[in-house]
């Protein structure tokens, strides 16, 4: 679809959504972002909705600056998916035991491993395990002090909210494994620490929204933030790799002949150093994936809707980006007031998953229609596979 533009801003804002369908709070945020002197441009994805400081579903290219709130507090949050050799005919009719085995192997919610999981044993393919944990000591001292043990035990855990682990089928009845998670509590604490630090800097005193406070290139505060940011992004990627390795172990125990294709993995809350329009820029994707030409990515729906494996088309107008999912259309509190566990059970019929009041805020009706979202970004990605979950694990 041709993108829409917000008129009269300092930097161009391109929307892959009809502005009339975007909440006014989110539009106000986009105007505030575009007015920042460091912003080169903003691309807005079709799953856009209001967030802290910057909208969820926004891609912001800045010159010599980065706003930690424009990354999101779950630094490095993203998706991993893997095609297996199994087909639907290999699976039992009753999937409850498979779901229970996944929940036993991978801690969910506030739970964590009793001891750190050795990724060398799991063969995640990620090198530098000991070097990675040595770098923990170089993180912001108020966060690193006394937290290493917990961070190690949380590596390879799901968390709660919209994070999930799924077993899915594609159009050819092939079995896929898919999961969504981020940098757990340590990433959140690092994000909140640096957002607070940025707000104290003199150049941020007159911003239209204090949550848009930025760090400037060349300053020690920027160097400190980028050190912690990149570590947290690595932690999030390792977290998903460990979970996927544990998930493969569960599958192999149940189906010994199962084999696996290489993983597809992508962040959707992160910062990347890129070149756009001939300029070196720092790109923050908050609820958006990179969709460079040929890049594989994952765009999930809700716990009762389809998800998509996609290939990027390299659209330069979007800073080579696409949406990260369906996007919420109502708050968690509103969803809890409007829907019941019975509604959740009806909307997740045929899926082996929790159907209790504790996850009503994740009901499919709380999210935008994923098919409509995909139709709005047909110039950003092409669909490789459409997946439908048959097992969904949530915290």
Automatic annotation (TrEMBL):
Active-site residues, as the UniProt record annotates them: 324
Residues that, per the record, bind Mn(2+) 1: 74, 163
Keywords, alphabetical: GTP-binding, Ligase, Manganese, Metal-binding, Nucleotide-binding, RNA repair
GO biological process: DNA repair; RNA processing; RNA repair
Protein EC: 6.5.1.8
InterPro entries noted in UniProt: RtcB, RtcB-like, RtcB-like_sf
Catalyses which reaction(s): a 3'-end 3'-phospho-ribonucleotide-RNA + a 5'-end dephospho-ribonucleoside-RNA + GTP = a ribonucleotidyl-ribonucleotide-RNA + GMP + diphosphate
Named cofactor requirement(s): Mn(2+)
One term of GO molecular function: RNA ligase (GTP) activity
Organism: Actinorhabdospora filicis
PANTHER family (alphabetical): RNA-SPLICING LIGASE RTCB
Any Pfam family hit: RtcB
CC cofactor note: Binds 2 manganese ions per subunit.
Protein's recorded name: 3'-phosphate/5'-hydroxy nucleic acid ligase
Residues reported in the UniProt entry to bind Mn(2+) 2: 180, 268
Organism superkingdom: Bacteria
Binding positions (GMP): 162-166, 268-269, 300-303, 307, 324-327, 394
């Amino acid at each position: 679809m041709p993108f829409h533009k917000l008129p009269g801003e300092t930097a161009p804002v391109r929307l892959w959504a009809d502005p009339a369908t975007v909440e006014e709070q989110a539009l106000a945020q986009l105007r505030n972002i575009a007015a920042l002197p460091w912003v080169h441009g903003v691309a807005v994805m079709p799953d856009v909705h209001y967030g802290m400081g910057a909208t969820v579903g926004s891609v912001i290219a800045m010159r010599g600056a980065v706003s930690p709130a424009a990354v999101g507090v779950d630094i490095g949050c993203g998706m991993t998916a893997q095609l297996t050799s199994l087909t639907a005919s290999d699976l039992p009719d009753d999937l409850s035991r498979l779901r229970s085995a996944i929940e036993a192997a991978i801690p969910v919610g506030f739970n964590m491993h009793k001891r750190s999981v050795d990724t060398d044993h799991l063969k995640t393919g990620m090198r530098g395990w000991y070097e990675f944990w040595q770098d923990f000591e170089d993180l912001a001292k108020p966060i690193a002090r006394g937290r290493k043990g917990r961070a190690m035990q949380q590596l390879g855990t799901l968390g709660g909210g919209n994070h999930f682990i799924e077993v899915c089928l594609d159009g050819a009845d092939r079995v896929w494994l898919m999961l969504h998670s981020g940098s757990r509590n340590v990433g959140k604490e690092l994000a909140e620490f640096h957002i607070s630090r940025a707000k104290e800097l003199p150049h941020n005193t007159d911003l239209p929204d204090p949550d848009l406070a930025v760090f400037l290139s060349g300053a020690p505060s920027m160097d400190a933030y980028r050190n912690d940011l990149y570590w947290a992004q690595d932690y999030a990627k390792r977290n998903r790799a460990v979970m996927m390795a544990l998930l493969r172990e569960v599958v192999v125990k149940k189906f010994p002949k199962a084999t696996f294709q290489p993983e597809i993995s992508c962040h959707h809350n992160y910062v990347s150093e890129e070149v756009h329009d001939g300029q070196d820029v720092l790109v923050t994707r908050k609820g958006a994936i990179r969709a460079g030409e040929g890049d594989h990515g994952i765009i999930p729906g809700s716990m009762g809707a389809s998800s998509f494996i996609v290939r990027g088309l390299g659209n330069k107008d979007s800073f080579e980006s696409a949406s990260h999912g369906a996007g919420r259309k109502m708050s968690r509190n509103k969803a809890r007031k409007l829907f019941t566990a019975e509604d959740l059970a009806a909307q997740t019929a045929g899926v082996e998953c929790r159907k209790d009041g504790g996850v009503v805020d994740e009901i499919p009706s709380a999210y935008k229609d994923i098919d409509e979202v995909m139709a709005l970004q047909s110039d950003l990605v092409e669909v490789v596979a459409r997946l439908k979950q048959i097992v969904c694990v949530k915290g």
